[in-house]
Amino acid sequence: MQPLDLVPIWTGILAIGVFLYVALDGFDLGVGMLYNFAPDRDARGLIMNSIAPIWDGNETWLILGGMGLLAAFPVAFAIIIPAVYFPILLMLLALIFRGLSFEFRYRDAEHRTFWDHGFAAGSTLAAFAQGVVLGAFIQGFNVQGRQFVGSSFDCFTPFSVFAGIALVFGYALLGSGWLIIKTEGALQDWARALGRRCLIGTVLGIGIVSLWTPYANAGIAARWFSFPNIVYLAPVPLITAGLIWYVWRSLNDRSEYAAFFASLGLFVMSYIGIAISLWPMIVPGHFTLDQAAASPSTQAFLLIGTLFLLPVILTYTAWSYWVFRGKVRSDIGYH
Amino acid sequence: MQLDPELLSRLQFAWVVGWHILLPAFTVGLASFIAFLEGAYTLTKRPVFLNLSQFWLRIFAISFGMGVVTGIVMPFQFGTNWSRFSDAASNVISPLLAYEGLTAFFLEASFLGVLLFGRKLVPPFMHFFAAIMVAGGTLLSAFWILATNSWMQTPVGYEVVDGRYFPKDWFEIVFSPSFPFRFAHTVSAFYVTTAFVVLGVGAYTMRRGQSPAEGRTMMRLALCFLAIFVPLQIVLGDAHGLNTLEHQPAKLAAIEGLWDGGQGVPASIIGWPDQSAERNLDEIAIPKLGSLYLTHSWNGAVKGLKDFPADQRPPVAIVYFAFRIMVGIGLAMLGMVALGLFLLARKRLDQTQWYLRLCEFTICLGFLAVIAGWTTTEVGRQPWTIYGLMRTADSVSPSLTGANVLLSLLLYVVVYLVIYPVGVSVMFGIVRRGPSASDEAPLIASGHPKSPIEAALAASREGAG
Q1: What is the nearest CA distance from B362 to chain A, expressed in angstroms?
Q2: Is A101 a residue whose pLDDT tops 80?
Q3: Mean pLDDT, range B320-335, rounded to an integer
Q4: Which residue of A110, B101, B134, B407 shows the fewest CB atoms closer than 10 Å?
Q5: What is the pLDDT of residues A277-332, one digit of tens each?
Q6: Mean pLDDT, chain B, integer
C-alpha cells in the first residue's frame, strides 16, 4: 500500500504558520514602530496596552515556523538560514531587545525612555531584517549540492534591502490598522493619518517588487506574462488594486475594522503572488517541496502531535483575541 | 592569525546556550516550587504559602520571559552556524525540537495566563491545577530538549543513507541510552539550583527582618528539600558517569584525566592535563581508586585516552576541570546543607548571622554547577556533534568565514551583557521589596496577557451592569 503523502499537508501547515506569523507579529511590530511617533505619554501608554496581551503569543509563531521548516523541509532550512546569516542575526537580536524592552519599561522606570526607544528600534529592525530575508529568498541562493556556498553578505542586494524597507511600511500599515480598531478620538485620527502614509509606502513597495521580480527572473516573467497564464493570473493584480483603493477609502472614512482587514488582504495577495512566482520550489532554482521534504517517518511522527496541539493553540489564540476585543482606554487598560 | 569559523561557532553556541540554560535551570525548579506552594496553600490555607507563591510568581514572570526570548535564538543556531549538521541530522532530531516548541507554546498559551493573573477569578484548586500544568510543561520542554541532546551523545534507532541520518525507531531515538540518566541528573540539578536560590533569598529576608515568617518558611522548605536532593543528585551523577563510561568512554577518560587505561587505574584528584604530552603535570592521584568507583572492583579495566586516536579525544583540560568544579560545588553544597541542618537541629538557624550571609553567597552555586556540568558533557562530546558518527568540523555551515562569526558573536555578547544585568537587577528589586510587598498591579504591568478569564468576567460584569 502506498503510504499517505504528507508533503501537501506539511506545505499547508507551514504556509499557514508563516502567514499567521507575518499577519500577527506583523501588526504588533508595526505598532512598535509607530509607537515612536506617538504624540504624548498617554498615547504611548494606550498604544502599548493595545498589544500588551497578545504580542508574545504572536512571536511564538516564529519558532513554530522555523521548526516546521526544519522538520518538514530540512534541506531548505539548511540552505536558507545560513544564506541569510546576518538578517537572521539582526532579527533575533532585535526581537530579544524588543521583548525585554517591553518587560523592562514597566519595571525599570528610571530608564524608561531608553527601553521605549529600544522597543521601537527593535520592532523596526526586526521588520526590516525579515524583509531582507524575503527579498533574498525570492532572488535565490548560490547552492552546490545540499549546501549554500555563497558569502554571508550575498543576501544584501538592492532588491532585498528594498524588500526590507517595503516590509517595514507594510507592517506599519497593519499596525496603524490595528490602532484604528483599538483606539478612538484624536489618537485614532492620528493612526489614520499615519496609515495613509504607510499605505503609500506599501503600495510603492508592492508595485516595485512585483515589477522587479519578473524583470530580474525570466522564468517568473514567463509564468506571469505568457498566454494563457496572464488571463488566469489577472485577478491577482486586479484584486490587489481593488484592495488598495478600499484601504485608502477606509483610512479616510469612519470605518473601524475595514482598514486593518483590507491591509491583511493586501498581505494575502502578496503572499499568493510570491507563491505563484516560486511554486513548486522551496529553495528557488534548486529544490522543490517534494525534493526537500523530510522522510515520511519524520513528517508522520511530528504530524501526530501537531494535529492535536495546533487546533488547541489556534482556538486559544482566537479566543484571547475575542476576549481582548474593543477599545483600549486609559482608565481600564491592561495595567 | 586565521579566524576559525568552527571554533568561533562553537564559542557562539556556548555563549548563547550558556546564558539561556541559566533560565530553565531556575524556572523548571521554580515552577515546581510554586506548584508546591499553591498545593500547600490549598490544603492548609496558611497565608504564608500564598504570600510566597505570589512573591515567587513575580520573579517567575521575568525569568520565564527572558527564557522565551533567549530560547528563540537557539533553534536558529542550528541553521545559521551548523547547517551541515542540520541537513544530516534533522530527519531524526527536528521533530524532537519541534515538539519542544509546541509544548512551550501550548503551556504558555494555556496555563501561564491563569497562573499569573487568574488568582481571584478561578477557584483555588483551578489555580493549583494551572500551577501543576505550568510545572509539567517546563518539565516536558526539558524532556524534549534533553532527548535531542541525548541522541546526539548516544545515537541509536537510526539508519544512514547517503551520509544522512534517518529514523528507524522513534522510541529508541527519544529514549536513547544516556537519556534517562541525563534527564534525571539535569532536572535534579535544576531543582537543587532553585532550592539554593530559595534558601539564599530566605536568608536575605530573615536578615532584613521584613517578613520573618516567609523567610523562616523559605529556609526550612529549602533545607529539607536539599537534604534529600543534594545526596540524591550525587547518586544520580554517579549513575550518569557510569553510563558515560559504557557509552562514551573517551569522554569519561577525559573527565578522569586518565591517559593510560588498563586494570586497577588510579583516580586523579587534581593536576594539569597536557594534551600534547599525553600526561598530567603536577598530578595528585590515588592508586586503584579509579577502578573502584568506576567498575566497583579494585582491578576493574578502564579505557584511557591513549586507547583512542588523538583526533578522537576531547579537549581534556576543559572537561577535566569543568568536572572537578561541578563535583567541588556539589561537595560545598553538601557542606552547606549539613551545616544548615545542624543549626536547625540546635534551633540556631534564624539567629546565626554568618550562616544567613553565607546562604546569600551560595545562591550562585547551582548556576555555576549547571554551567560546569553542561561544559563537561558538551565539550566531552567533542570532536563530534553526533557522538562517534559526525564530526563537529563537518557540521559547520560551509559559507561562513571566521570574520562573519566573530562579528555575530560580538553582537550576541553585547546584547546579552545588557539584558542579563538588567534582568537580574529587576529580579533583585522584587526580592528587595520582599514577600510581603503588595501584589497589586505589578504582574499585569509586565506586559504579559492579563488572564482572558479576568477580562471575560469584567466584560460580562459590564454587560450585566
Answers
A1: 26
A2: yes
A3: 95
A4: A110
A5: 988 889 988 999 999 999 999 999 999 989 888 888 888 788 778 777 788 876 54
A6: 88
Hey, are the CB atoms on A77 and B108 less than 8 Å from each other? no
Instruction: Name the residue with cell 499553591.
Output: B38
Structure-block grid coordinates of residue A105: 519599561
**What is the average pLDDT score of chain A?**
89
Q: Alpha helix (H) ranges present in B81-153?
A: 83-107, 113-117, 124-153
Are the CB atoms for A251 and A173 separated by under 8 Å? no
The strand pairing partners of B390, in sequence order, are: B386
What are the boundaries of each domain within chain B? 21-246+350-464
Find the mean pLDDT for residues B340-363.
Answer: 92
Q: Report DSSP state, residue B200.
A: H
Min Cα separation A242/chain B (Å): 36
On whether the CB atoms of residues A180 and A192 are closer than 8 A, the answer is yes
Per-residue pLDDT tens digits for B132-176: 988 988 999 999 999 999 999 999 999 999 999 999 999 999 999
Whether A2 is covered by a domain: the verdict is: no
Does A328 fall in a domain?
A: no
Name the residue among A74, A301, A306 with its Cβ closest to that of B90. A74
Asked which of A52-66, A218-232, B279-293 is least confident by mean pLDDT, the reply is A52-66
Encoded amino acid at B140, one letter = L
Write the DSSP symbol of residue B439. Answer: -
pLDDT digits (tens, 9 = 90+) for B82-111: 999 999 999 999 999 999 888 877 776 678
What is the grid cell recorded at B463? 454587560
Which residues constitute the domain of residue A222?
A: 7-323
Quote the percentage of chain B above a pLDDT of 90. 60
**Is-cis flag, bond preceding A87, omega within 30?**
no
Displacement of CA A177 from its chain's centroid (Å): 15
Chain B residue nearest residue A102, CA to CA? B447
pLDDT, position B108: 66
Nearest-neighbour CA in chain B from A57: distance (Å): 7
Q: Per the domain annotation, does A335 fall within a domain?
A: no
Question: Measured between alpha carbons, how far is A266 from A244 in angstroms, rounded to an integer?
Answer: 7
Q: Residue length, chain B?
A: 465
Contact B75 A106 (CB under 8 A): no
Residues in chain A within 8 Å Cβ distance of B425: 108
ipTM of predicted complex: 0.90
Closest to B110 (Cβ–Cβ): which among A149, A302, A316?
A316
Name the domain count of chain A.
1
**Residues sharing a CB contact under 8 Å with residue B254, sequence separation 6 or more, in sequence order:** B273, B305, B313, B314, B315, B316, B319, B320, B380
Q: Residue A95, SS3?
A: helix
Amino acid A254: pLDDT: 83
B211 within 8 A of B435, measured Cβ to Cβ: yes
In the block, cell 517568473 appears at: A220
Interface of A with B in 151-210 (CB under 8 A): 151-152
B72–A302 C-beta distance less than 8 A = no
Provide mean pLDDT across the span B245-274.
Answer: 89
Q: Is A304 on the interface with B (CB under 8 A)?
A: no
Chain A contacts of B90, Cβ < 8 Å? Answer: 70-71, 74, 77-78, 294, 298
Could you count the other beta carbons within 10 Å of the beta carbon of residue B361?
11
Q: How far is B71 from chain A (nearest CA, A)?
A: 9
B450/A316 touch (CB, cutoff 8 Å), yes or no: no
Residue in B346, B345, B339, B283 with CA at minimum distance from that of residue B316? B283
CB B108 within 8 A of CB A317: no
In this complex, do A74 and B87 lie within 8 Å of one another by their Cβ atoms? yes
| Global pTM value | 0.90
CB contact under 8 A, A294 and B94: yes
A306 touches chain B (CB under 8 A): yes
